[in-house]
Design goal:
CATH class: Mainly Beta
CATH architecture: Roll
Structural class: mainly beta
Oligomer: single chain
Number of domains: 1
Strand order of the largest sheet: 4-3-2-1-5
Distance between the termini: 31 Å
Number of helices: 0
Helix content: under 10%
CATH topology: SH3 type barrels
Radius of gyration: 12 Å
Order of helices and strands: EEEEE
């Protein structure tokens, strides 16, 4: 189970928030034993882009052999 303060990977695009599959977020709250998560997405300089309540199907743990990728979000 994903835990609070764990980094996660977005599993689907969320265009209404300017987020794309693969973006990294941090779980700030676990709802009802993992039935949902409150996830914060921030820019690399610390500006919050969105805090979203989402089901487990929309996030996943970071894989062991993955690498982060930076992208511009100024169009949000």
């Amino acid at each position: 189970m994903i835990k609070e303060l764990e980094s996660v990977v977005l599993a689907t695009d969320l265009p209404e928030y300017g987020l794309k599959k693969g973006d990294l977020g941090t779980v700030v709250l676990v709802h009802r034993d993992g039935k949902g998560y409150e996830v914060e997405f921030v820019t690399l300089d610390g500006e919050t882009v969105a805090v979203i309540s989402m089901p487990p199907s929309q996030v996943r743990p970071i894989g062991r052999r993955e690498i982060a990728h930076a992208r511009d979000v100024t169009s949000i």
